Amino acid sequence: MQRLLLVIVSMSASVALSIGAWAMSDQPPAADDHAQIEFLARHWQTPIPPQGKPPAHFSSIEGSLDPESCGVCHRAQYEDWSGSLHSKSMGSGVVGQTMELIHDNPKMALLCYSCHAPLTEQQEKVVKKKGGTPSRVKKRHRPSASPPDALEDGGGGELTFKTNHAFSASLQAKGLSCAGCHVRGHQRFGPPKRDGSIENSAPAMQLPHGGAIRTAAFEQAEFCKGCHQFEPSGYALNGKLLENTYNEWKEGSYAREGKSCQSCHMPERRHQWRGVHDPEMVKQGVSVRLALDKEHYRVGEQLRAEITLANIGVGHNFPTYVTPKIVVRWELIGGDGKRVNESVQEERIGREVTLDLTQELFDTRIAPGKSRTIRYVRAIDRTGLTLRASVVVVPDDFYIQFFEATAPKAKGKEARALLEQAAREGRARSFPLFTENVVVS
């Protein structure tokens, strides 16, 4: 069952473009849309094919795949990326799993890498037998019962693996780096210039790394889709795909208004990809309101309070996916500063599933433009009481539980230590969204 988690939860298993999802739109794709679909299908082959040798006239910086080399000229983008979760996609939690899995079950490890470290040069092993990479649709399904050292190819055969002599451990540690999105065969790709033009400013031989091929596909939500959306026939619980962020966006007002993923997560083309881990980002997208039915209560009266959370600026469900949780907590504090026994009430907002992913326990996420109200009712039994209401965001809630459960099962000390570290790091990322103390008696 750990392998199931590795593929479906700990990492988004493939960087595939689901062309079929375009059918969700009322209008058929325009010619430009078709061109972008075709570009993305080529661009997001996984693993990303080996870059090969750089052109002979390239300098060492131009021929390098290291993000630090990109940062020589693209300093602002590099600094944004280095502080983002993309740069940490091969963090302790992922490495703690894949360092053993790459030997025991390379199939699963490579599926993890397809989003977390998608360059061939970042992967310790490559496919040995001809037949190409596994079907991108299969990557979004429940893992099959294939033997750990083989998997099916598109023709129903099996693929085996061999050591990748182009592997770079230092590059793997950089996670989803600049080259993961922007470099194919040492050719650079990117969005149109800010004025909308796509032409280079000079002949390719006169420009660093030969200039760039520009396409509007970089500005479309579909560019992000492969790592943030399961295929229509992918793994689902209670009739809902386990990972469904793109579809949540597509079905909402943001898609209709032309607001893409990049509009919120890459404003002004910043390479920060801020999301549920960022307190200011969450505060911009979610409002919290506390209301009580009275300003002051006498002993014997019922305190009635409610907190309403509204999704006012998140273009998909809040939170999306099964990992984050929002914890609404109530408690009464006595005049002595101590918590009143049996006064604590907690409610979790999110999509809760069992650690083995076999059951959905609840789904209380908030759709765009919607709200959810949590109520608290308690009898006032004394004077001098203060109601403390808080809302805490736990971005890595599922992972914390998963890492704590799997760390003792790790074979090696290093893997166990990394998983324990990941759990600690996950807990440290929690933050308060709202806290208020109200004297009620």
Task: Give a description of the structure.
The protein is of the alpha+beta class. It has two domains: 224 residues, no CATH class; 161 residues, Immunoglobulins (Immunoglobulin-like). It is 28% helix and 20% strand. It is built from 16 helices and 18 strands. The strands form seven sheets. A four-stranded antiparallel sheet has the order 13-12-17-18. Strands 5-6-7 form a three-stranded mixed sheet. The longest helix has 16 residues. It is elongated, with a radius of gyration of 24 Å. The N terminus is likely disordered.
What's the SSE blueprint?
Elements: H1 2-10, H2 31-43, H3 67-70, H4 75-82, H5 92-104, H6 106-116, E1 125-127, H7 136-139, E2 151-152, E3 158-159, E4 161-163, H8 169-172, H9 178-182, E5 183-184, E6 187-190, E7 213-214, H10 222-225, E8 236-237, E9 240-241, H11 245-250, H12 253-256, H13 261-265, H14 279-285, E10 286-292, E11 302-311, E12 325-333, E13 345-349, E14 351-353, E15 360-363, E16 371-379, E17 386-394, H15 397-406, H16 413-428, E18 431-439
Parallel strand pairs: 6-7
Antiparallel strand pairs: 1-4, 2-3, 5-6, 8-9, 10-11, 11-16, 12-13, 12-17, 14-15, 17-18
Helix pairs in contact: 1-6, 5-6, 5-16, 15-16
Concise description?
This protein has 441 residues and is of the alpha+beta class.
Which residues sit in consecutive blocks of at least 5 with pLDDT less than 50? 1-5, 7-31, 131-155
Distance between the termini: 52 Å
Largest sheet: 4 strands, antiparallel
The largest beta-sheet arranges its strands as 13-12-17-18
Total DSSP helices? 16
How many domains? Answer: 2
DSSP E strands, number: 18
